Every structure is written in structure tokens, then in C-alpha cells.
User: Fold VOC family protein from Arthrobacter gengyunqii.
Amino acid sequence: MTALISHTSFDSLDPFAQSVFWRGVLGFHDDPDDPNDPNHPGDEECMIASDDGSQRLLFIKVPDGKQVKNRVHLDLRPAEGTRDRELERLLALGAREVADRRMANGTGWVVLADPEGNEFCILRSDAEREQAR
Assistant:
């Protein structure tokens, strides 16, 4: 027997704003199986999902902001293009750079934060890693 992950939940001051940011980052959409579909400003919970529904994120309203470093975070890789191109796109969506861990040889990653300060990383694409071999 095993368990399957239903969704990943994030505490949030503004669930709707977080869902909009992460929809743009991941290309997700409001979850049609969510009784609150579509998400609206002021909602207590906002769920977004991948096109095939296999990945879902839930943003839940809480009264207090982030206090310390995340204990869990997402590591992302570009679906197409390069890590550095994706970094530019994520910054334009509202991410903030926290730490640059890129190395001179092209390896490494960049630590970012979403609009509420939750850290996540952008890694090299599969094509970049394959090219380096």
C-alpha cells in the first residue's frame, strides 16, 4: 500500500493573489473539481491544477505572514528554454531573487521567493543538463 499526494497546501495572506502568481509560473488553471471554481479575490481557499489534474496547489488564508525559512519548497526546471531565461520570466511575474547559486561552469540554481516570501528554486532545464554531459 502507498499514499498519493492529493495537493500541496500553502498558508497565505492572500490566497487569490498567490494562485494568480503560481498559475503564471506553472501554467496551471483553477481546479474545476474545486467547489469554489473559479477562484475570486477574497476567497479563503484557492486551488489550482495542472492541465491533467495530477498536480494541484492549494492556498489557504491565514492571519499571519511568513516568519522563517520554508521547511519545504518547490524546485522548478524550465519546460523549455534555459534556466536563465526562465529566471527572467519568473522575476517579471513578481518573484524576488533571494540567492544566486549558479556556478561559472553553468551548474547551480537560483533561489527565489514568491510575492509572500515563500522560497523556491529554478534549476537548469533537462536540455541544459544533457548538453553538459
In short: The chain has a mean pLDDT of 93. Strands lie at 8-12, 29-30, 45-49, 56-61, 74-76, 96-100, 110-113, 119-122. DSSP finds three helices and eight strands in the chain. The two ends are 37 Å apart (CA to CA).
